[in-house]
Amino acid sequence: MSTPDTPHKEAAAGASPSEADPRRWLALTFIALAQLMVIIDVTIVNIALPSAQQDLDVSDSSRQWVITAYTLAFGSLLLLGGRIADYTGRKRTFMIGLVGFAGASALGGAANTFGLLLAARALQGGFGALLAPAALSLLAVGFTDPRERAKAFGVFGAIAGGGSALGLVLGGVLTEYLDWRWCFFVNIPIAAIAGTGAYMVVRETRAKGRARFDIPGVLLVTAGLFAIVYGLSEAETDGWGSGTVVGLLVGGALLLGLFAYVESRVAKPLLPLRVMLDRTRGGAYLAIGLAVIGMFAMFLFLTYYLQVVKGFSPVKAGLAFLPMSLGVVISGGGLSSRLLPKVAPRALMVPGMLIAASGMFLLSRIDVGTSYAAGVLPAEFLLGAGMGLVMAPAMNYATHGVRAEDSGVASAMANTAQQVGGSIGIALLNTIATTATGDYMKEHGPVTPQVQREGLVHGFSIATTYAAFILVGAAVLVGFLMNTPRPAPAKEGAEIPARAVHVG
């Protein structure tokens, strides 16, 4: 793997903190609010889904498409969205994504048919693929002083780690006290506030040079990511041995391999391999992808455990996730932002993954009679605290040292890692859980309600044990790859990588 990229002189000219955008902290507020909307939307619909399914008369076999339509569009278009942001303007792309996401949310809330709801979800995913990498790249080029950058990415990492839990809380409240449609409509005022503020205070930046898009690369990576995300979603229902699933995963892998070959040959690649092959950034992408495998599956398992096994209402189940959000805020927004400028990234990420793994191991010990305070609450807090230590430095170093013209696509890779990791986690661990549940009920005689609950918890326990081992393995890999030394103290007037070309 290579060393960090040497920035172009024109596109990456150094600037002292005094020359930085004076409104950058206010800009962070609106950028973070928009990113929070995207993260919340991933889980808020999970809570709304049972009510939407009943209202629109959707079959059990079809309901998964409400989730899959979003992930397919989002995951397969992210790299293209990042490249569009780089060359057509990051603020412009951010605003288009924000307005489009709000419009798609309004369509979803007003949907009176299942087909219209699916179309709205696909549009949300497509516009989210513009919005998410543009938001992260705006931070990457807007905060160049190491200490300020650490604080900004501490906030961003806390949102990435805790926003999903907040989505469950908000979804429960809106579904129980208003209507499932408000899980979509709520995005409109959030987008209006974020968009108005961003329009006024965010500075436009774009990469130097004329926009030239790598069409073969766009087609290959979009098809490859589509096949993999679709295959992973089908594994939940068809099983990992299904010919369709195997064909999609193998085909997707081959397409991505061909994509890597094409990118090494074309003059203006969609994803320059220097972005991926840098050891630090590669480790950051791997950390993001592996960390969310367990986290996304945990949301699914605990939602069912709390509502089906423990009998919690949607609101109570949503509120039960708050300890995880608290752990993320304390470690990601507080501890990580203070330590990031002073210590090597793996000094935060490796302990973070081990802390999260301990939370998973604790979660694997719960049974039907375990109280929330004794079992779920401490496990959630540990998982949140661990994720906060992982996500803040991972998001920071995912864009660290890139050339200005690569900022958007580097940001898109961080989001792609999160999306693909989440899809793998849900498909893999849900398959493990359902298989273990089925085996338990076969071995324990007549299927009574009590046996069903015990079988469900047994499946969750097995799956979370696997998730814990995945996190331990991730800690070892990240500790080996992320050999970046402790950040050197910033010198006044020194050159800072990834400086943008300002055009507005």
UniProtKB/TrEMBL annotation:
Predominant location: membrane
Keyword Cell wall biogenesis/degradation: no
Membrane topology: Multi-pass membrane protein
Localization annotation: Cell membrane
Keywords: Antibiotic resistance, Cell membrane, Membrane, Transmembrane, Transmembrane helix, Transport
Alphabetized SUPFAM superfamilies for the sequence: MFS general substrate transporter
Residues of the Major facilitator superfamily (MFS) profile domain: 27-491
Pfam family, one: MFS_1
Xref: InterPro entries: EmrB-like, MFS, MFS_dom, MFS_trans_sf
Highest taxon in the source lineage: Bacteria
Membrane-traversing stretches: 25-45, 65-82, 94-119, 125-143, 155-174, 180-201, 213-233, 239-262, 283-305, 317-335, 347-366, 372-394, 460-482
Protein name per Swiss-Prot or TrEMBL: MFS transporter
Protein species of origin: Streptodolium elevatio
